Amino acid sequence: MSTTEKEDPNTEKLDESLETELIDEWMIRQCSLYKDEYNECTSIKGRFHQYFIYGETLDCNQWKKDYNNCCKWVEERDLRAAETLIESEKARRYLRLQNHYRNDIWKKRDSPPSDWDKPLPDWITKRDENTYLALKAKELKEGSDKIDNKSTCSVITVFSVHFKRVTMATRSASTGYLIEDPKYSFLKDLGLEKHNVGVFNGQWKATGD
């Protein structure tokens, strides 16, 4: 008894036995990148940046849609999702290069200049004649470049540093400078004369300033 599977007519899936190559499949990024872009767009830092640059917050839903379409393409081989994702990437790329395409000041070349490989000026050649790259290029051109198999010895000096903890003796009687003063009686209530003796080391007195 044959069973028929109901499929969504709006969804086109590729048969695993068929190899269908999308012309612009290279434009599809890793799915994790779309998720990162969405998280960055909706973060507090991203919102402040958008408000600073554009004067308002931007709509980040397109990144979420692209992430969902990317997952459908990677996991389910959904052809329609891949085509939608590619169209989104093309629109994003056109928006990024929009000012470049609108520039009518500079004339774009159809081919490189005919003398693009002409020799460098003499002053540049003279300046770089003793550089490492110039010497290596000369050796390769003359065929005199040989691998030096000589063994080398490296001396490593190790410094050992030892730290010694020095314990300084403190006098518990020095706490009297503060503890005995009525203005600083709260220090006694806090127990500082027992736990922080080193603070009251007799180097200064309570003057009430």
From TrEMBL:
Record's subcellular location: Synaptic cleft
InterPro entries cross-referenced by the UniProt entry: Pants/Emi1-like
Parts forming coiled coils: none
Any single GO CC term annotated in Swiss-Prot or TrEMBL for this entry: synaptic cleft
Domain of life, source organism: Eukaryota
Similarity comment: Belongs to the UPF0545 family.
Name the record gives this protein: Synaptic plasticity regulator PANTS
Lineage: Eukaryota, Metazoa, Ecdysozoa, Arthropoda, Hexapoda
